[in-house]
Amino acid sequence: MASLRSALRPLASVRPIRRVAARAAIPALRVRLYSSPTLAAGAEVRPGPALSQTNRAEATLRRFWKTVHVKEEADGFIITLDHRNLKTPGGKKLVVPKDRRLLALLIANEWENQDEVLKQHALPLTSLASRALDGLQDPVTREGVVDALLQYLETDTICYPHDEPSQLVRLQDAHWSPLLSWLEATYGIRLNLADGLAPASQAADSVAKLRALVAGMDGWELAAFERAVYASKSFVIALALVKGQLGANEAAEAAHVEVRSQIEQWGEVEDTHDVDYQDIRRALGSVACFGVKTTVSSSSLPTRLTDALGAPANPLAPLDDYRRRSSAPVRAPAPPLTGVAAPAAVPTKRELDAEWSVAVKEGTVPDTPLARQVFETWHRFPGCIVLTRVGKFYESYFGPAHELSALLSLKLGSKAYKTGKFAFAGFQTAQLDKYLGILVRDLGHTVVLVEEYDDDGIKREPSAVAAPGESISRKVGRVVTPGTVGTLDEAAGESRYLLSLALGRQGAGAASKTDDGDDSAKVPVSLAYADVSTGEFFTKDTTLAHVEDELARIAPREVILDQAIRTAWDAGAAAASTASARADLLDLLRVLGVHVSFADPAPSHDPSLSVHTLAPFGEQAAINLLRHHLSYAFRDAPPALQAATRQAAGAQMQIDAATLQCLEIRHAFRPGGLHGASPTASPTAGPLSTRGSLLSVLGRTVTPSGHRLLVRTLTAPSTDVPTIERRLALVAVLVARETLRTDLRDALAGPAVPDVVRLVQKFAQREGAAAHVWDVARWVRAVERILARIKDDVKGARRAEGSDRLRALVGAFRDLGTLARRIEDAVDENAVMRATEDDEADAGDAIVAPAKGNRRQEKEAKREERDEALWWIKPGFSPALQAAHDALASLRAERSAMQAELREKHGADGLVLERGARAGYVVGVSKKAECDALKKSKRFETVSESGRTFAYLPWSTLGAKMDAATDKLLVAQRRAFDALRATIVERAADVQHNAELVDELDLAMSFAHTAVELNYVRPVLTTGTELHIVNGRHPAVESGLLAAARAFTPNSTHMTARDHLHVITGPNQGGKSTLLRQTAVLAILAQAGSFVPADAARIGVVDKVFSRVGARDDLFRDRSTFMLEMVETAAILRGATDRSLVIMDEIGRGTTLHAGVSIAYATLDYILAHIKCRTLFATHYHELGDMLCGKPDSTLSGADARVSNSNGEHAGGVHKAAGISGDRLAVRGTPRQGVSFWCTDVDEMDGAFAYSYRLQPGINRQSHAIKAAQLAGMPPTFLQTARATLAALRAGHEATVD
After folding, report:
1. DSSP letters of 180-247?
2. Res 670: pLDDT
3. Rounded to an integer, what is the distance from CA 73 to the centroid of its chain?
4. Most exposed residue of 49, 263, 337, 619, measured as fewest CB within 10 angstroms of its CB?
């Protein structure tokens, strides 16, 4: 067991780390599996099957499995991923021999511990097993491997000993000599050693014995030996390792003898030697574990492993744990939980002191003040990534540094302390936004930022470096979570909502079933959500049954819950003993994979967080949760939120989650694509893509905030007719006035229209830069120019239609001219521009040939120019700022006089008083004569090797005064900046108001541009329940067809109170689903205030849109295709009202024919009898037409009812007397009130066919499914068999009827 522990210990350094992100270029896994010089020896490697688990991992580099199991079979152990056998890249089932039981456990452990992204070298044992099974079973390949490995015998470092230095001789005797003795004693092989420069040529019989020894290895042992040789560069060391003579650590030490000798003699190159050594240990550690043949119980393995730097590794789970794992699918572990932790979870000072003492004693951390602060921050924020600001860097230390290094692909360094070396990793402060995007936005982690503060308690600028002796304090300034990263993230076109959910008073323990049987339908839930980057703040009341729909609409990045239910969340779904509304909510959030945090719902005592509202209990609790979480995340300055906008349930069209997905409002599903790595991936990549969605067709906005308004509008259109008409009127004006529309779009698309709401929000949090201040003034002036252009247009067309709407729009803007003047009077535009253009200028200078002249003077002039760019606030802003500028200007004048005097006195025209990076304030000259002149004076002292830089006491004294004056000026400008920010924040409400009007204008121009380009018309909205669409077209489908130079076939839909349910039949691929979706999409567009793709449209306002279209499943929630269909249908029947619009496709298709028809008919009957809403119902069950055409007094409900037509014939028979006899599309009977029948068809001629797509009255009793199969490319024999079978079935049915 001791040797086994020794073999396992090197694996600690490659332990799997949760939520690994391989941000750097990672070699393909298959390359890693087969990385072998054997290929160069002429061995042939045949390609395997196209797909296996390892190939899939190679292609995606992401975890695609949920569960890992080890199963024992007759021929050995197999590892399964989601109960599917793990296969090698060559397609072979990975079977581990029974004498390698521990190896099976370790391979399973490799796959179990992978999370989001696969890490390089994360599957070392799997790669060895794949090599053994795929590459080393073929005799030709084995022979090439043996030949390649024997070549290392001729160059084996062990055969080339040295007589000096003494350190090397001692290490050779300790590590190499025993191996040579072992080889001779065990195998009778005495290796020849090199003498001087002559090579160590081996005897033929020795080579033959070693060849036979290697050739006799089985594939598993040979794979291990191959890796050991390539890692250690030694044939003998590798042989000793695979034969059990050496452990992994001993083998690594033997392979590292020469390097260790150099280290002892000359010292270690920090990081470099250690990294090389750890790489060898990793490879040899995997070989040692791979070669263990034992059935030892894994319970006897070490429970605590540590890596080379002392960080704890993950313990190995018992093998039986894999067998006992539940077969139910399990999602990848949730990201670390954040939020206001329960008070009991915060360690006391005494507890921290005790834990700190233990950590120092064990050598986990060094005993320094910074280490103590880092240690305490870990314990205050468990599960979070802590980044500590140190000068111009953010750093992570000790054990957590390993995780940060792996997540961000940063170099893992080490720092030496009195008690040893400790790991650290970090990056520059300028890269903070980049890495926060990876850690928080992409990977869902919570990051704690420990910032530096000056004596005034102000956070130091990112570029600031502490002066010698300057006191710096550190404290937590930000806790960055997925919902609060907005101000640090510049994904301008998307909202990042933070959502809090508060159950009603009875919700926490409410039973899952209410009295009427509806699942949690009456449990109230209050929502409060905000985008901290813009200040938008909304509240809404709903029920637990509709929470999933609200989550789909809002798309929050983080959800906050009451901390009282954190224990239930931590316990997991399996721990819920009884069904309750709380348990249902937690289960839903687990399924959706939302990042969940917790906070206190009690009212805040902080005046800055108070909410002036008379909100009811639930809403107030949700607001409190949100406010507490924001105060937790933003320690320095919580974001300023707008007054909460309460969204009434009936004020917006409700679109449930299934309908948002079905209608492809925001995203279109493209099967077969690859998922993007993050939510901000390319909009055209992955199954969820904006391409082909409604948003892609209408997304013609030119500002980020306008795009955000477009998304909100399409996912929740208005139900208020006057509001809709105001937007339609504005769109109509812009459609009619092309020149105005073009001018306004050009004005909004220019750089002078920044995302001003986010800028103001930065200022509210005491963030932002000089350019942001100037951008606010530019935005105000740009808006003024836009308003002037609109006024000119209105003035030139006083009586033109729409002028009133434009005048109303202009009149709604608030005057911000005084704010713009205040900024323009305060800010030096030239300084702001120089600061932003410095980098570009430097890049340009690099390719321009420098002009001849004094380079010292040029360098100093450029430095002075950059210094001037720092002072971007004009001196006249305040008396204090003016005084600070005057003081610095006086000292600079004194410097200029001193420089002129020295030049004249010493005859050195090139003399420059400058500040050096190392020597401080010095005198520099360029010419030798000038240098010699200064050396003659005793007042100058040479301070550089070149002899052209001198120390001069008067200049040093003056320079110190200039430094002090500069510091005072920086403080004065910072205070002026604070005042300027405060001025902007005071007008934040007015800026927000005007910004909303600009967004409305941008949205209207987007709708108008689309309408003109694609020939849309203005719809008419009413308060009735009618729906009349003449020649309507599906926006996204039409756009796709136009791109392929094809025309869309329009269709009309007419619904009234007496004709509100349309049953649509027709062939597969005949356009039924398109018609359903386009009707719902046109209703959404009309209520969004957009023109619609049709010849005419008159639509009664729809309160809710429901869809049940398409075949899919939700196995994660234990819902088959049919069960999901029933769940969605049940939601429609429970939630629809007489003002709703319902589209349903193929209800009842997932079961037997009779059961399916029964369910479909019952659905229609319920809508007709209880809801009476506008419904489009597509089906292939043409029998439904006969069932809906019974006598008016027929009883059509009940599972056993016999449905008759007007002639008394049963539904299953042939109707002869009713309808249009002889017409194959005839409706055979009198439809029930409210029902009409429509269909599409196929045009056939001379054996050819084409889909007509045009809707016509009647019932089509043929699906033409075989024609669709023909178009799909089915083989001819398949089509022949299908046609013959269909003919036989029809003949049998007709014989039965006769």
Report:
1. HHHHHHHH---PPPP-TTS--PPPHHHHHHHHHHHHTS-HHHHHHHHHHHHHHS-HHHHHHHHTTSS-
2. 60
3. 40
4. 49
Residues making up the chain, counted from first to last = 1298
Bridge partners for 1097 per DSSP: 1029
Residue with tokens 């199969």: 1269
- Tell me the two tokens of residue 77: 């152990």
Contacts of 603 (CB under 8 A, 6+ apart): 610, 620, 624
Q: Say which amino acid occupies 1165.
A: D
| Alpha-carbon span 274 to 545, nearest angstrom | 57
Helices (H) and strands (E) in the chain, counts: 45, 38
Cβ-based neighbours of 1242, under 8 Å, separated by 6 or more:
1067, 1070, 1249, 1250, 1251, 1252, 1262, 1264, 1267
- Residue entry with tokens 């004569």: 929
CB contact at 8 A, 786 and 1005:
no
Burial tier of 624 (Cβ tally within 10 Å: 0-12, 13-18, 19+): buried
> Rounded to whole angstroms, how far apart are CA atoms 1277 and 796?
73
Provide CB contacts within 8 A for 1113, sequence distance 6+. Answer: 1119, 1120, 1121, 1123, 1124
Residue 1086 CB contacts under 8 Å (≥ 6 apart), including other chains:
724, 1019, 1021, 1092, 1097, 1099
pLDDT at 679 over 70: no
Read off the pLDDT of residues 132-159 as tens digits, 9 standing for 90 and up.
888 787 788 888 888 888 888 877 878 8
Name the phi and psi angles at 589, rounded to 5: -65, -35
Spatial contact of 565 and 342, defined as CB atoms under 8 Å apart: no
Binning the chain into helix, strand and coil, the percentages to the nearest 5 are 50, 15, 35
Strands 1174-1178 and 1059-1065 turn out to be parallel
3-state DSSP call for residue 822?
Answer: helix
Residue 1264 in tokens = 């033409």
- CB-hemisphere CA count at 13 Å for 302? 18
Please say if the pLDDT value at position 350 is more than 70: yes
* Pairs from 137-145 (Cβ < 8 Å, separation ≥ 24): 137/219, 138/44, 138/46, 140/43, 140/44, 141/38, 141/43, 141/44, 141/45, 142/215, 142/219, 142/222, 143/43, 144/38, 144/41, 144/42, 144/43, 145/36, 145/38, 145/41, 145/43, 145/222, 145/226
Model pLDDT, residue 1172: 93
Q: How far apart are CA 634 and CA 355, in angstroms?
A: 28
- The whole-angstrom separation of Cα 475 and Cα 479 is 11
Which run of H or E residues covers position 1131?
helix 1121-1135
| Residues 497-507 as b or e (16 or more Cβ within 10 Å = b) | bbbbbbbbeeb
Residue where the block lists tokens 């339908």? 521
pLDDT digits (tens, 9 = 90+) for 240-284: 888 888 888 888 888 888 887 777 766 655 444 444 566 777 788
* Type of residue numbered 1000: E
Dist. CA 105–CA 212, nearest whole Å:
32
Task: Report how far residue 269's alpha carbon sits from residue 263's, in angstroms, rounded to the nearest whole number.
Answer: 8
The type of residue at 806 is: L
Task: Tell me whether residue 310 is exposed, middle or buried, using C-beta atoms within 10 angstroms of its C-beta: 0 to 12, 13 to 18, 19 or more.
Answer: middle
Helix (H, G, I), strand (E, B), or coil: what is residue 96?
A: strand
- C-beta separation of 676 from 686 below 8 A: yes
Q: How far is CA 313 from the centre of its chain?
A: 27
- The candidate with the shortest Cα–Cα distance to 582, out of 566, 598, 597, 595, is 566
Give the helix/strand (H/E) hosting 73.
strand 68-73
DSSP class of residue 607 equals: G
Contact, 308 vs 273, CB < 8 A? Answer: no
Q: What single string gives the DSSP state of each residue in 703-723?
A: SHHHHHHHHHHHHS-B--HHH
State residue 202's pLDDT score: 81
Cross-strand bridge partners of residue 924: 912, 949
